[in-house]
Design a protein that fits this description.
By secondary structure, the protein is mainly alpha-helical. It is built from twelve helices and three strands. α5 runs antiparallel to α9 and α6 (about 125-140) crosses α8.
């Protein structure tokens, strides 16, 4: 018979949750080294539960163990951001083409539920929790198409997408709080429900505006000719709309 008293989360589980939210809040740069001594002091725990937490985070891909160098935040290069941003946009565009004009009420409600979760987080949650909820919103939007392979491709990029979202949110901090983040996503859903393809296209472009991310991307290594051309195009587009 199962115990009627719920088990308490372990120190490792609590540390994992705290670290995950801190990372997704954009408080670390991709590839930044994590120092165990500092983390133990910040979290108030010893090394064994910390190492267990880092091991669990490594399984999700959020951190990585580097031989003889320790643990660092997931590395993301300029080329990675180029691939993630462009693939995300094409998947979302394809999903909208398939979802319109007939939007399934059950799938729409799933989108609404994610917005309600974001509203609760804005009241007493953290930036890291908002990044996770923001991903779930976009995953639900992609799910409007009822296309399992699009959804699985999108889900496969979960951690990388959330890291990019964290970088974007970090750059937006001065002009957008958690309530503003929720409003931006709620507005996107309202536009989708109006079912105007041109308006939806504009809203996706505005929602995914990379003006805040460009300066951050410049701090990343791993530029390629493809990512350079993409960034040049982004900057040109931003200058035209300025």
């Amino acid at each position: 018979m199962a115990s009627l008293i719920p088990s308490q989360p372990s120190l490792a589980a609590l540390a994992r949750q705290a670290l995950e939210q801190t990372i997704l809040a954009g408080n670390y740069m991709p590839g930044e080294r994590l120092v165990e001594e500092h983390l133990c002091e910040e979290l108030g725990i010893s090394r064994p539960p910390l190492r267990e937490a880092l091991k669990e985070l490594a399984h999700t891909g959020l951190v990585e163990h580097v031989p003889r160098k320790g643990v660092r935040i997931m590395s993301i290069s300029q080329h990675d951001v180029f691939e993630i941003a462009t693939l995300r946009r094409e998947l979302e565009r394809m999903a909208m083409d398939l979802a319109l004009p007939d939007l399934d009420p059950v799938r729409v409600e799933r989108c609404r539920q994610t917005v309600r979760v974001m509203e609760r987080i804005a009241e007493d949650g953290t930036e890291g929790e908002m990044v996770t909820a923001g991903f779930e919103f976009h995953y639900a939007v992609v799910g409007l198409a009822g296309h399992a392979r699009i959804e699985s491709t999108y889900r496969a990029m979960a951690m990388q997408l959330q890291m990019c979202m964290a970088l974007n949110n970090q750059a937006r901090r001065e002009i957008e709080d958690l309530d503003g983040n929720v409003a931006r996503h709620a507005r996107m859903l309202d536009v989708i429900l109006r079912r105007d393809p041109d308006e939806i296209e504009r809203e996706f472009d505005n929602h995914g505006n990379l003006s805040f991310l460009v300066d951050t991307v410049d701090q990343l290594d791993g530029a390629t000719s493809e990512s350079d051309r993409w960034l040049e195009g982004v900057r040109a587009s931003l200058s035209e709309t300025a």
